[in-house]
Specification:
7 strands, two-stranded antiparallel ribbon, 642 residues, mainly alpha, disordered N terminus, flat
């Protein structure tokens, strides 16, 4: 008897004791079978890497119901839409590797909670001061330099020789973070993954995505939609404002930080930055120049910064001059020192911006970005120069948006002091989360869109079930084990000290490999002027594209200060494939064939003792492996000839 055939209607006769025993036996069998199935698949439950591994463990009808649940899923119900809640949309594309899906990209969204009030708007004009190094930023740079001096702890020994501590990157970072104030420490945000939209390289699709957000957030017609994106989508959102003025795009801090590093590498590529990186042990300079890996490039630039900062302060202490006097030296003196002092100062600005992200400090982010902004046009990064101009103008125009960002400048989804930026959190908790939980065929457009929309609900159902059988995971967050590279770092410090004292630093062994072409008086003039030229250019973008007091003129926006041709040639040479060495065929002589003939009479491979006897009669070019190879080739040839 099957369970679904048991009569349960009230007209039927009552079940007797025999029937109850039969039902109990059937239920026991079903339970036992399910237990054996669970025990059989326990490894898949414990070590699975995707929802597909979980779902494959359960019965077939459960998988059939999955699509029904996905179609009925409504992720917008997870949103908080009260008046005191600020919904921040973060938009990005998800690229799948399959060829049939290579041109399709899916949008994703996260948001967090902040207070909302009526929207005042400031008027921007030609006198509005947004860009450049503010007094607050100068105080921060001065504070960072004080940290270097305090950690070096200069003193004179008995012979009146200057001595100091050998500092490293860890000590500098720890002290900077210790003196940094945290921003508003809000609880973790409510992260919701909404349904996908269309192709991200189409302005109309981007506009359609913003309309989807407005509908999901239940925004009124006059309410602003605050949406964060990387630079490529940010520029399209700026265009969308011509059709919908209530869109306020926010430039992703993480992508911006990455391009800030790229700008620094570009600006100093003709001044020896590749030589300094090589001195620290960098092997693949082309990957370093392209900022392929954010974490690796960041670490190399930080090590260079520590070496330069330590060398500058040691030199100043020895020379009895103040740091403010470096740039006021005569034009033909201290060329190397003055060039690399600019790197020391500009990288401190980048460091301030990153520290603001990690410590949720909006002021550090804003001061750092505003001070660094002129370096984007100076490095020929026209798109980022335009996007940063629009973003900083929005912050100045909408004071309430700035107040919201003061309350929540980053995402509280990590350890204290390691908070990710909005777009960085999207990559980790959105894009990566989706890819990890996509099941089966991701090339099916309809199936893929359903899975993205229902990912969180399906994952929550699975987690609820697994918590009944498996212990919850506990994560122990630890700092990464990194090599501080003390020896190459301080060798570089001493090399820089020697170069600072030379009239022609390009003759130093440190710069012999690539011979930076701009490490001279002419290059010093160019790098000195680069910041002011960039500041002028970014103000022109503000006047032409934001407040529109001038006609748009894009001429010269992509020009780069300094001659980068030499540096590019050096990197290109590294990428050139080396000519392959031609294999030289070794011909066995007649005399050697006669010596080896005794081994060919054996049907089995010769022993090492037999081979060693033959090797004693052969030249030194022969070894055991070559003898075995000779025997195998001849035996194979004999078999083929038969």
């Amino acid at each position: 008897m099957k369970l679904n055939q048991i009569p349960i209607e009230f007209q039927e006769e009552e079940l007797n004791e025999l029937k109850y025993k039969e039902i109990g036996w059937e239920m026991g069998q079903k339970l036992w079978q399910s237990y054996k199935c669970l025990k059989k698949n326990i490894n898949n439950l414990q070590t699975s890497e995707s929802l597909n591994d979980y779902i494959s463990v359960f019965p077939r009808h459960e998988r059939r119901l999955e699509k029904i649940r996905m179609k009925s899923a409504d992720p917008s119900k997870r949103l908080l839409t009260k008046k005191n809640v600020f919904n921040l949309a973060v938009i990005d594309n998800i690229d799948f590797k399959e060829k049939s899906f290579q041109f399709e990209n899916i949008y994703d969204v996260t948001r967090e909670v902040i207070v909302e009030k009526p929207e005042p708007i400031r008027n921007l004009n030609i006198d509005t001061q947004i860009f450049g190094i503010s007094q607050e930023m100068r105080d921060i740079i001065f504070k960072i330099n004080k940290i270097f001096i305090s950690l070096l702890a200069f003193w004179y020994n008995e012979r009146q020789e200057l001595e100091y501590n050998k500092i490293d990157l860890t000590a500098i970072n720890s002290e900077i973070l210790r003196q940094t104030e945290f921003g508003c420490n809000l609880p973790p945000p409510n992260v919701v993954i909404l349904e996908p939209s269309g192709f991200p390289n189409d302005d109309n699709e981007i506009l359609h995505a913003t309309e989807m957000y407005r509908r999901d957030f239940s925004l009124e017609e006059n309410d602003f939609l605050d949406i964060c994106a990387d630079e490529a989508i940010f520029r399209r959102l700026i265009k969308c404002r011509n059709k919908s003025e209530n869109i306020r795009p926010i430039l992703g801090q993480w992508h911006t930080s990455k391009d800030m590093m790229s700008a620094l590498v570009t600006l100093f590529s003709s001044y020896g930055i590749y030589d300094l990186a090589t001195a620290l042990g960098v092997k693949f300079l082309d990957k370093f120049a392209a900022v392929i890996d954010y974490r690796s490039t960041r670490r190399v630039l930080e090590l260079i910064w520590v070496a330069v900062g330590a060398a500058i302060n040691i030199y100043l202490q020895k020379s009895k001059i103040k740091i403010e006097e470096i740039l006021s030296c005569p034009a033909n003196e201290k060329i190397c020192l003055r060039i690399w002092y600019l790197y020391y100062e500009w990288f401190a600005i980048w460091k301030t911006h990153l520290t603001g992200i990690r410590y949720e400090n909006y002021e550090l982010q804003k001061f750092g970005l505003a001070a660094f902004a002129p370096l984007f046009p100076a490095a020929g990064k026209s798109n980022y120069a335009t996007s940063v101009t629009h973003f900083l103008a929005n912050l100045e125009k909408y004071p309430l948006l700035e107040k919201k960002l003061c309350l929540c400048a980053s995402i509280n989804l990590a350890r204290e002091g390691h908070y990710p930026a909005f777009d960085e959190a999207l990559e980790i908790h959105g894009v990566a989360y989706i890819k990890q939980n996509i099941t089966r065929n991701s090339c099916n457009q309809e199936n893929l869109e359903l899975q993205i929309k229902a990912t969180q609900e399906e994952r929550n159902r699975i987690d609820t079930l697994l918590n009944e059988f498996l212990s919850t995971y506990t994560y122990q967050h630890k700092d990464r084990n990194t090599n501080n590279r003390i020896e190459p770092l301080w060798k570089l410090v001493h090399d820089l000290l020697e170069a600072f004292e030379m009239d022609n630093p390009i003759n130093h062994d440190l710069f012999k490999k690539n011979s930076p072409p701009q490490l001279n008086q002419e290059g010093l003039i160019k790098i000195n002027q680069a910041y002011m030229d960039g500041l002028k250019r970014i103000k022109e973008i503000f006047w032409q594209e934001v407040i529109k007091t001038e006609a748009i003129n894009t001429k010269g926006r992509r020009s780069v200060k300094g001659n980068l041709k030499r540096a590019s040639i050096e990197l290109d040479n590294q990428n050139e494939p080396q000519p392959k060495c031609q294999r030289i065929r070794i011909i066995t002589t007649e005399e050697e064939k006669q010596i080896l003939s005794c081994l060919l009479q054996k049907k089995t491979i010769p022993t090492e003792t037999e081979i060693n006897e033959v090797l004693s009669k052969l030249s030194q070019e022969w070894n055991i492996q070559r003898v075995k190879r000779y025997w195998n080739n001849n035996i194979r040839h004999k078999k083929k000839s038969k």
